[in-house]
Amino acid sequence: xxxxxxxxxxxxxxxxxxxxxxxxxxxxxxxxxxxxxxxxxxxxxxxxxxxxxxxxxxxxxxxxxxxxxxxxxxxxxxxxxxxxxxxxxxxxxxxxxxxxxxxxxxxxxxxxxxxxxxxxxxxxxxxxxxxxxxxxxxxxxxxxxxxxxxxxxxxxxxxxxxxxxxxxxxxxxxxxxxxxxxxxxxxxxxxxxxxxxxxxxxxx
Amino acid sequence: xxxxxxxxxxxxxxxxxxxxxxxxxxxxxxxxxxxxxxxxxxxxxxxxxxxxxxxxxxxxxxxxxxxxxxxxxxxxxxxxxxxxxxxxxxxxxxxxxxxxxxxxxxxxxxxxxxxxxxxxxxxxxxxxxxxxxxxxxxxxxxxxxxxxxxxxxxxxxxxxxxxxxxxxxxxxxxxxxxxxxxxxxxxxxxxxxxxxxxxxxxxx
Lengths: 204, 204
What we know:
Two copies of one chain form a homodimer. The first copy, chain A, has 204 residues and is mainly α. Helix content of chain A is 66%, strand content 2%. At the A-B interface, helix 3, helix 5, helix 7, helix 8 and helix 9 of A face helix 3, helix 5, helix 7, helix 8 and helix 9 of B.
């Protein structure tokens, strides 16, 4: 297809398509004359993916580039790949500390793995600090409510990966981390709404 | 306490404290002389809350102001309050459409309540569009994985509200929506990490 059709089918303006090509985020089309290049379905898929990460997920362009780089050239170690994917996603916390005491205590309590180099540890530490600052309950019984559900979800998410090749597993893990998060948060908000609508409201 | 002590104990610079007072986000201290005001524990708590929303949760200042306004003067209708709280949180989607077909179909399938005026409906629609664009599974069995867990969590979160007054319930609901989300996301990422570390890795 021509670049105009690629633009129309992806919903991405031609100027933006050209920008992604210049930035190396989208491969060039196949030159069919000095003035025209031909684009295929793989270009369309890639553009939709960039739009999902940039527009829908709201990642800054530098982070979209990080995610694409992970998919194009994954680390040999899947744990390192997961670590880099999580580092490309918000919340962007000040990492690089030696120790995260709030997260360390919670992780020990919840039976998870404490690795201060894995960005989600710093993210949990910040999140727990915010709970404390706001006077919300961050004690183990409350944390277990979330941890139990997340462990169940994570196990179901990882299960299909045992049948995948590395080339399939990396995009699945990286994109799944990025793109099921907004689904989950919207569904929690919808569940609150549904329960309030159905069940009446607390007394004032 | 003096403003200098308030600054030190909250970790918020004096100039920023003065800015929050000018913006009406933090009440003035009690004037004890023409040049000095006295601040109390309620000022400290409020500053910590602002810092949690702005710095840790990363909300833009205009959205922090929205959340504070909800807490200070909640709507009489708790469903409306929840709706406004959710509208103050990311992802900031283009709302105001008449219909959200992807979300409508999913919500019907999941047995939730479809109300196009509730922002989380637009948020779910966008999130499902991103899944489709990235070629990830958005079919009912996968959505049920998240929905079931979120419904369980939402029910446990709402349970304590039946014993609360309106003045207690609103901050609990508004801040809980905002501040347990990062905890949940960090725990999902940590569960992936833990399962990969424990269970070995898919074959490449």
